[in-house]
């Protein structure tokens, strides 16, 4: 029984068989762990009112330059422009104007696009910002999200690399800038568009969402350009600029969104930056640790089944299920480590009926052997079998009745 149960649990852990149950538990814990956002993070939203006022998307690069020129007066600590500028503008002067505004506004970080898979069978394709913008940026970072099987965005990879080229996450660059840490230069110059034969992703981080959509301080793009937002809101703060408009596509389901709502990409980036700055980043436990944490309560229950009475074993099993959930929640909320508990709970739920079946089978076999032995002693058993109780309508009941 122990070997069978351990094998089932190990299979479920390695193959993530119960990932839907695990993600449901994770999402419930995330909803319990909501917190106020960092005051240092401000979002400038390319929202629907701004689109209605300033025109349809995409906007000319000069419009983005106008925003950065306003921010230059406010002196923010750092700016992440969560918009892809991977193609040169039709007007080269517009790119130069935006590059000049980036340099004037202070450290501005830009994203690149890494498409998976790449063209013609390649592992991926990397598209970096257009030449003048790449040169003016304080750093280039990747912003890829990792989606679970249910299509929900719960995690990212802190680094992506291909050969000698590597990219940190855009929010990791912002964190380093905020803390005065060194920001690594690109390992290779490369072209703006590059086909990647391989793509390696490192250090998966689960996002500890601070709250639902709209949780972080947000001001409309158009209001900032018009000068209606006090510069004190941006002074010394970390400014994230990105799309929140419903028609722009950069919107995703998360653990803190309902079935009818999504979270904008720039809000996701704000949650990531908040986690990195507050030390709340969550890391998944290794398969080995999850196996150990899943098999330990199973071993305790098996030891109890060998020594305790059935009622005590039932109480022990329920207590172990509750303890497994509590340990998983504690690791997540206190230690910032996610160890999925569903396989352990399933193992505990399975082992008791398996053990009971094996015990009943052994008891039945014992009584069959005893009855066979008794039939060889005519003086012990009556010549006619006793009338069976109506309650003895199963095999074990009939065998017990015969032994009486």
Describe this structure in words.
A hairpin with an 8-residue loop joins strand 3 (108-115) and strand 4. Helix content is 47%, strand content 18%. The protein has helices at residues 2-15, 19-32, 48-54, 61-74, 92-105, 131-136, 170-179, 221-225, 265-278, 287-307, 310-335, 342-375, 395-403; strands at residues 41-46, 78-82, 108-115, 124-127, 139-142, 146-147, 153-162, 165-168, 193-196, 200-206, 218-220, 238-243, 251-252, 263-264, 283-284, 337-338. The mean pLDDT is 87. It has 13 helices and 16 strands. The protein folds into 2 domains: 2-12 and 285-400, no CATH class; 34-278, no CATH class. With 404 residues, it is of the alpha/beta class. The strands form 4 sheets. Strands 1, 2, 3, 4, 5, 9, 11 and 12 form an 8-stranded mixed sheet that branches.
Brief overview, please?
By secondary structure, this protein is an alpha/beta fold. The chain has two domains: 2-12 and 285-400, no CATH class; 34-278, no CATH class.
So how many helices?
Answer: 13
Counting helices, strands and paired strands, the structural category is alpha/beta
- Low-confidence regions: none
Rounded mean pLDDT is 87
Radius of gyration, in angstroms, nearest whole number: 31 Å
SSE diagram, text form:
Layout: H1 2-15, H2 19-32, E1 41-46, H3 48-54, H4 61-74, E2 78-82, H5 92-105, E3 108-115, E4 124-127, H6 131-136, E5 139-142, E6 146-147, E7 153-162, E8 165-168, H7 170-179, E9 193-196, E10 200-206, E11 218-220, H8 221-225, E12 238-243, E13 251-252, E14 263-264, H9 265-278, E15 283-284, H10 287-307, H11 310-335, E16 337-338, H12 342-375, H13 395-403
Parallel strand pairs: 1-11, 1-12, 2-3, 2-12, 3-5, 15-16
Antiparallel strand pairs: 3-4, 4-9, 6-7, 7-8, 7-10, 13-14
Helix pairs in contact: 1-10, 1-12, 4-5, 7-9, 10-11, 10-12, 11-12, 12-13
